[in-house]
Design goal:
disordered C terminus; alpha/beta; rSAM_sf; Aldolase_TIM; 14-stranded mixed beta sheet
Length: about 375
């Protein structure tokens, strides 16, 4: 079974599962690209690629120790995370313009970047603008919001707005079931109530009334690091009504980024996924009690294993930034990103794989 974005297979034997784990994303088979005329030239697009309007209206409400927006490649130029959107009408006019050439082409919508809920008015206008694009012929066959959830505390109207928009799911970041440990990793601003477990729990229960909630937990040595940790976290999440959880290994950098305190923290805190997978299902014939293997997903730079545990869908994920960059280097666009300076690019670096800079809205440096 496959989707426009990845390939799903179920290992039939323990030997095949071992191969999946060994080769991971390298087993992904690229599909034939789609040619699209846009901005004066022909572009090759990976079918099912996602569109990201980079969320950067205000600074993030947390300062996660693993933040990918603080990483800079050796061949990188600038970071979108360092610029703010300060002209909403111009930005949303630009959004409509960059989507126009891709009308009728199914795209995934990935609402990510910094924290989309941190500026509720921007998110409301974003949803309205994207809704207008859909009415004009844009097709978003999957809509996902990646968030730390902070904005829902003071702006609970965002949840029904996302429901009305038709959000497929909300991926809610939480790195530990103990709020003190979670704070050491996610580092919410002091004025953010979401740092407290009681507020988090109440928010999750409210979100359930409007959208599908999937917990996202980054594996770290000081946080969730072992299978008993995983099972404790799952029991805690289930107590909040969460029935889908992903545990992500910190993305493998493999020396492709300039050293800084974030790369140092990532490498020091990395919890490799392989020992956890071996503990869950050493072989298909002898899984850990309570765990059932459901299949594996292969993406162009990531690999997932899917399980069921006491009524909860559990995913373990590993990914490689060098593999992502290698896919970008093929000349086939893997993703579309509208950066906060108005640049439409096929890369997280707004100066790389640029499709268009026309009519770019003004953006202001962060203080």
């Amino acid at each position: 079974m496959t989707s426009p974005r990845n390939q799903f297979r179920v290992a039939a034997t323990s030997a095949e599962l071992a191969q999946f784990r060994r080769d991971a994303w390298r087993l992904y088979q690229p599909v034939a690209p789609v040619a699209v005329e846009a901005f004066g030239q022909t572009w090759q697009l990976r079918p099912g690629l996602t569109f990201t309007p980079f969320a950067n209206a205000v600074r993030c409400t947390a300062h996660c120790a693993f933040c990918s927006e603080e990483l800079q490649r050796y061949d990188g130029h600038q970071l979108t995370a360092k610029r703010l959107i300060d002209d909403y009408p111009a930005y949303f006019a630009r959004l409509q313009a960059v989507l126009r050439p891709f009308r009728g082409l199914p795209l995934g919508l990935s609402l990510s970047g910094l924290e989309a809920t941190a500026e509720p008015q921007w998110l409301r206008e974003l949803l309205a603008s994207l809704g207008a694009a859909e009415a004009a012929g844009s097709v978003f066959d999957e809509k996902v919001l990646y968030t730390n959830g902070s904005g829902f505390v003071l702006s609970p109207d965002l949840a029904p707005a996302l429901q009305d928009f038709g959000l497929t799911r909300l991926e809610l970041s939480r790195c530990h079931d103990d709020e003190a440990v979670n704070q050491q990793i996610m580092r919410f601003n002091r004025n953010q109530p979401m740092r407290h477990n009681a507020v988090y729990a109440a928010t999750v229960r409210t979100l359930h009334q409007h959208v599908a909630v999937k917990n996202s937990c980054i594996l770290t040595r000081e946080g969730i690091a072992s299978l008993p940790d995983v099972e404790r976290y799952l029991a805690w999440a289930a107590g909040l009504g969460v029935r889908r959880v992903v545990f992500r290994e910190l993305s493998r950098l493999e020396g492709s980024y300039l050293p800084n305190r974030f790369t140092e923290w990532i490498e020091a805190q990395r919890v490799p996924i392989e020992p956890l997978l071996a503990a869950v299902v050493p072989t298909l014939e002898e899984p850990r009690p309570g765990w059932q293997y459901a299949g594996s997903t292969f993406g162009y730079y990531y690999y997932n294993e899917h399980y069921r545990w006491q009524g909860t869908d559990v995913i373990f994920e590993t990914s490689s930034y060098p593999a992502l960059q290698a896919a970008n280097a093929t000349g086939v666009l893997q993703k579309l990103i509208l950066h906060s300076d108005g640049t439409l690019a096929g890369d997280w670096d707004p100066d790389s794989h640029v499709l268009s800079r026309l009519d770019a809205p003004a953006a202001a440096p962060q203080p």
